[in-house]
Amino acid sequence: MLILLPPSEGKSAPGRGRPLELKTLSQPSLTPARERVLDALVGLCRDQPDHAATVLGLSRSQLDLVARNATLTDAPTARADRIYDGVLYEALDLPSLSSSAKRRAASRLAITSSLFGMVRVGDRIPAYRLSGDACMPGLGPVAGWWRESLGEAVTDAMGKGLLVDLRSSMYAGFWRPPAELAPRVATVRVLHEVAGRRQVVSHFNKATKGRLVRALLEDGRDPRTPAALAGVLTDLGWQVEIDEPTKKGTQLDVIVSEV
Protein backbone atom coordinates (compact mmCIF):
# COMPACT_ATOMS: atom_id res chain seq x y z
CA MET A 1 0.00 0.00 0.00
CA LEU A 2 1.22 3.48 -0.91
CA ILE A 3 -0.41 6.43 0.86
CA LEU A 4 0.12 9.62 -1.11
CA LEU A 5 -0.13 12.78 1.01
CA PRO A 6 -0.27 16.47 0.13
CA PRO A 7 2.52 18.71 1.44
CA SER A 8 1.93 21.42 4.01
CA GLU A 9 2.21 25.01 2.86
CA GLY A 10 4.02 25.96 6.03
CA LYS A 11 7.24 24.16 6.90
CA SER A 12 9.55 23.90 9.89
CA ALA A 13 13.02 25.16 9.02
CA PRO A 14 15.81 23.12 10.64
CA GLY A 15 18.43 25.10 12.51
CA ARG A 16 21.22 22.80 11.44
CA GLY A 17 21.86 19.80 9.22
CA ARG A 18 23.85 18.87 6.17
CA PRO A 19 22.97 20.63 2.90
CA LEU A 20 20.69 19.16 0.27
CA GLU A 21 21.98 16.30 -1.88
CA LEU A 22 19.45 15.49 -4.56
CA LYS A 23 21.13 12.19 -5.39
CA THR A 24 20.33 10.86 -1.91
CA LEU A 25 16.56 11.33 -2.26
CA SER A 26 14.25 8.40 -2.96
CA GLN A 27 12.87 7.88 -6.48
CA PRO A 28 16.15 8.83 -8.24
CA SER A 29 14.37 8.86 -11.61
CA LEU A 30 13.09 12.29 -10.55
CA THR A 31 16.58 13.77 -10.06
CA PRO A 32 16.80 15.60 -13.44
CA ALA A 33 13.35 17.13 -12.97
CA ARG A 34 14.19 18.10 -9.39
CA GLU A 35 17.38 19.81 -10.55
CA ARG A 36 15.46 21.94 -13.04
CA VAL A 37 12.84 23.09 -10.53
CA LEU A 38 15.45 23.75 -7.85
CA ASP A 39 17.65 25.78 -10.21
CA ALA A 40 14.65 27.79 -11.43
CA LEU A 41 13.41 28.56 -7.92
CA VAL A 42 16.81 29.45 -6.46
CA GLY A 43 17.72 31.61 -9.47
CA LEU A 44 14.42 33.49 -9.40
CA CYS A 45 14.55 34.19 -5.67
CA ARG A 46 18.24 35.15 -5.75
CA ASP A 47 18.18 37.40 -8.82
CA GLN A 48 14.63 38.83 -8.81
CA PRO A 49 13.35 38.76 -5.22
CA ASP A 50 10.49 41.21 -5.80
CA HIS A 51 9.27 39.33 -8.86
CA ALA A 52 9.74 36.06 -6.98
CA ALA A 53 7.38 37.26 -4.25
CA THR A 54 4.73 37.90 -6.89
CA VAL A 55 5.26 34.55 -8.61
CA LEU A 56 5.08 32.73 -5.28
CA GLY A 57 2.05 34.65 -4.07
CA LEU A 58 3.84 36.14 -1.09
CA SER A 59 3.25 39.48 0.62
CA ARG A 60 5.98 41.95 1.54
CA SER A 61 5.87 40.62 5.10
CA GLN A 62 6.89 37.21 3.76
CA LEU A 63 10.04 38.23 1.91
CA ASP A 64 12.06 36.14 4.35
CA LEU A 65 10.64 33.10 2.53
CA VAL A 66 12.06 34.43 -0.74
CA ALA A 67 15.46 34.84 0.91
CA ARG A 68 15.22 31.29 2.27
CA ASN A 69 14.49 29.93 -1.21
CA ALA A 70 17.52 31.77 -2.60
CA THR A 71 19.83 29.70 -0.37
CA LEU A 72 18.18 26.27 -0.72
CA THR A 73 21.26 24.56 -2.15
CA ASP A 74 23.22 25.38 1.02
CA ALA A 75 20.39 25.39 3.56
CA PRO A 76 20.32 22.80 6.35
CA THR A 77 18.11 19.77 5.79
CA ALA A 78 16.11 17.45 7.99
CA ARG A 79 13.90 14.44 7.45
CA ALA A 80 10.78 15.32 5.49
CA ASP A 81 8.60 14.17 8.40
CA ARG A 82 10.18 16.98 10.44
CA ILE A 83 9.85 19.61 7.72
CA TYR A 84 6.17 19.33 6.84
CA ASP A 85 3.71 20.56 9.46
CA GLY A 86 0.15 21.86 9.51
CA VAL A 87 -3.19 20.29 10.46
CA LEU A 88 -2.79 16.93 8.69
CA TYR A 89 0.74 16.35 9.97
CA GLU A 90 -0.14 17.44 13.50
CA ALA A 91 -2.99 14.89 13.54
CA LEU A 92 -0.75 12.20 12.04
CA ASP A 93 1.93 12.96 14.67
CA LEU A 94 4.60 10.75 13.13
CA PRO A 95 7.16 11.13 15.97
CA SER A 96 4.80 9.50 18.47
CA LEU A 97 4.04 6.41 16.36
CA SER A 98 5.05 3.00 17.66
CA SER A 99 8.28 1.55 16.28
CA SER A 100 6.45 -0.81 13.93
CA ALA A 101 4.20 1.98 12.67
CA LYS A 102 7.26 4.17 12.00
CA ARG A 103 8.72 1.38 9.87
CA ARG A 104 5.47 1.19 7.92
CA ALA A 105 5.48 4.97 7.49
CA ALA A 106 8.93 4.77 5.91
CA SER A 107 7.73 2.31 3.26
CA ARG A 108 4.09 3.28 2.82
CA LEU A 109 4.00 7.09 2.96
CA ALA A 110 4.96 9.46 0.16
CA ILE A 111 4.50 13.23 0.15
CA THR A 112 3.76 15.23 -2.99
CA SER A 113 6.15 18.16 -3.38
CA SER A 114 6.17 21.12 -5.75
CA LEU A 115 9.96 21.22 -5.50
CA PHE A 116 10.88 17.53 -5.40
CA GLY A 117 7.88 15.86 -7.05
CA MET A 118 7.54 13.24 -4.35
CA VAL A 119 9.53 12.47 -1.21
CA ARG A 120 9.54 9.78 1.44
CA VAL A 121 9.36 10.67 5.13
CA GLY A 122 13.04 9.83 5.64
CA ASP A 123 14.33 11.97 2.76
CA ARG A 124 16.40 14.91 3.96
CA ILE A 125 15.14 18.19 2.49
CA PRO A 126 15.30 21.90 3.37
CA ALA A 127 12.30 24.06 4.22
CA TYR A 128 11.10 25.79 1.04
CA ARG A 129 8.17 27.79 -0.27
CA LEU A 130 6.67 26.82 -3.62
CA SER A 131 2.96 26.33 -4.07
CA GLY A 132 1.51 23.76 -6.43
CA ASP A 133 -0.29 26.45 -8.44
CA ALA A 134 2.84 28.54 -9.12
CA CYS A 135 3.98 29.27 -12.66
CA MET A 136 7.76 29.52 -12.78
CA PRO A 137 9.58 31.68 -15.37
CA GLY A 138 11.40 29.44 -17.82
CA LEU A 139 9.65 26.37 -16.46
CA GLY A 140 5.92 27.02 -16.70
CA PRO A 141 3.22 25.77 -14.33
CA VAL A 142 4.68 23.56 -11.61
CA ALA A 143 1.79 21.10 -11.91
CA GLY A 144 2.36 20.73 -15.64
CA TRP A 145 6.06 20.19 -15.09
CA TRP A 146 5.55 17.31 -12.71
CA ARG A 147 2.77 15.84 -14.83
CA GLU A 148 5.44 14.95 -17.38
CA SER A 149 7.65 12.95 -15.02
CA LEU A 150 5.85 11.95 -11.83
CA GLY A 151 3.81 9.03 -13.15
CA GLU A 152 6.66 6.56 -13.42
CA ALA A 153 7.86 7.34 -9.91
CA VAL A 154 4.41 6.87 -8.36
CA THR A 155 3.63 3.64 -10.20
CA ASP A 156 7.05 2.31 -9.26
CA ALA A 157 6.42 3.16 -5.61
CA MET A 158 2.98 1.53 -5.77
CA GLY A 159 4.30 -1.77 -6.98
CA LYS A 160 1.38 -4.21 -7.04
CA GLY A 161 -0.36 -2.68 -4.05
CA LEU A 162 -3.15 -0.21 -3.41
CA LEU A 163 -2.72 3.56 -3.86
CA VAL A 164 -4.51 5.58 -1.20
CA ASP A 165 -4.56 9.03 -2.76
CA LEU A 166 -5.11 11.70 -0.11
CA ARG A 167 -3.82 14.65 -2.13
CA SER A 168 -5.75 17.90 -2.30
CA SER A 169 -7.16 18.92 -5.69
CA MET A 170 -4.18 21.20 -6.36
CA TYR A 171 -1.65 18.42 -5.97
CA ALA A 172 -3.84 15.80 -7.62
CA GLY A 173 -3.17 17.78 -10.79
CA PHE A 174 0.50 16.78 -10.65
CA TRP A 175 -0.39 13.24 -11.76
CA ARG A 176 -3.64 11.43 -12.35
CA PRO A 177 -3.72 7.63 -12.26
CA PRO A 178 -4.40 6.06 -15.67
CA ALA A 179 -7.50 3.92 -16.13
CA GLU A 180 -5.57 0.66 -15.90
CA LEU A 181 -4.61 1.49 -12.30
CA ALA A 182 -8.14 2.51 -11.28
CA PRO A 183 -9.04 -0.82 -9.58
CA ARG A 184 -6.11 -0.20 -7.22
CA VAL A 185 -6.75 3.48 -6.49
CA ALA A 186 -8.77 4.78 -3.54
CA THR A 187 -9.44 8.44 -2.82
CA VAL A 188 -10.87 9.69 0.44
CA ARG A 189 -13.34 12.50 0.98
CA VAL A 190 -14.15 13.65 4.50
CA LEU A 191 -17.68 14.90 5.14
CA HIS A 192 -18.71 16.75 8.28
CA GLU A 193 -22.24 15.82 9.30
CA VAL A 194 -24.28 18.14 11.50
CA ALA A 195 -28.03 17.76 12.01
CA GLY A 196 -28.28 15.43 9.04
CA ARG A 197 -26.45 17.76 6.65
CA ARG A 198 -23.06 16.91 5.20
CA GLN A 199 -20.42 19.26 3.90
CA VAL A 200 -16.71 19.32 3.15
CA VAL A 201 -14.78 21.45 5.66
CA SER A 202 -11.07 21.97 5.17
CA HIS A 203 -9.98 21.63 8.79
CA PHE A 204 -12.03 18.46 9.37
CA ASN A 205 -10.74 17.07 6.10
CA LYS A 206 -7.07 17.54 6.93
CA ALA A 207 -7.26 16.49 10.56
CA THR A 208 -9.32 13.41 9.79
CA LYS A 209 -6.98 12.31 7.01
CA GLY A 210 -4.07 12.62 9.41
CA ARG A 211 -5.87 10.44 11.96
CA LEU A 212 -6.86 7.92 9.29
CA VAL A 213 -3.26 7.51 8.18
CA ARG A 214 -2.09 7.17 11.75
CA ALA A 215 -4.70 4.47 12.42
CA LEU A 216 -3.72 2.55 9.28
CA LEU A 217 -0.03 2.66 10.16
CA GLU A 218 -0.63 1.47 13.70
CA ASP A 219 -3.05 -1.25 12.55
CA GLY A 220 -0.59 -2.70 10.09
CA ARG A 221 -2.96 -4.40 7.67
CA ASP A 222 -2.23 -4.00 3.97
CA PRO A 223 -5.53 -3.84 2.03
CA ARG A 224 -5.19 -4.46 -1.70
CA THR A 225 -8.47 -2.98 -2.96
CA PRO A 226 -10.58 0.10 -2.15
CA ALA A 227 -13.30 -2.17 -0.74
CA ALA A 228 -10.78 -3.88 1.53
CA LEU A 229 -9.54 -0.45 2.69
CA ALA A 230 -13.12 0.56 3.52
CA GLY A 231 -13.43 -2.63 5.55
CA VAL A 232 -10.27 -1.92 7.52
CA LEU A 233 -11.35 1.65 8.27
CA THR A 234 -14.77 0.41 9.37
CA ASP A 235 -13.10 -2.11 11.68
CA LEU A 236 -11.09 0.76 13.14
CA GLY A 237 -14.26 2.65 14.03
CA TRP A 238 -14.74 5.02 11.11
CA GLN A 239 -18.04 5.55 9.33
CA VAL A 240 -17.24 4.84 5.69
CA GLU A 241 -19.38 4.85 2.55
CA ILE A 242 -17.91 3.53 -0.68
CA ASP A 243 -18.87 4.87 -4.12
CA GLU A 244 -19.05 2.93 -7.35
CA PRO A 245 -15.69 2.36 -9.06
CA THR A 246 -14.80 4.74 -11.89
CA LYS A 247 -12.00 5.04 -14.45
CA LYS A 248 -10.20 7.28 -11.96
CA GLY A 249 -10.52 4.97 -8.96
CA THR A 250 -12.98 4.51 -6.10
CA GLN A 251 -13.95 7.27 -3.69
CA LEU A 252 -14.47 6.52 -0.02
CA ASP A 253 -16.54 8.98 1.99
CA VAL A 254 -15.59 9.19 5.66
CA ILE A 255 -18.33 10.79 7.76
CA VAL A 256 -17.38 12.68 10.92
CA SER A 257 -19.47 14.66 13.36
CA GLU A 258 -16.62 16.22 15.33
CA VAL A 259 -12.95 16.91 14.75
TrEMBL record:
Residues 1-21 are annotated as: Disordered. One of its GO terms (biological process) is response to hydroperoxide. InterPro entries: YaaA. GO terms for cellular component: cytosol. NCBIfam families: PRK02101.2-3 (NF002545). This is Peroxide stress protein YaaA. It comes from Nocardioides silvaticus.
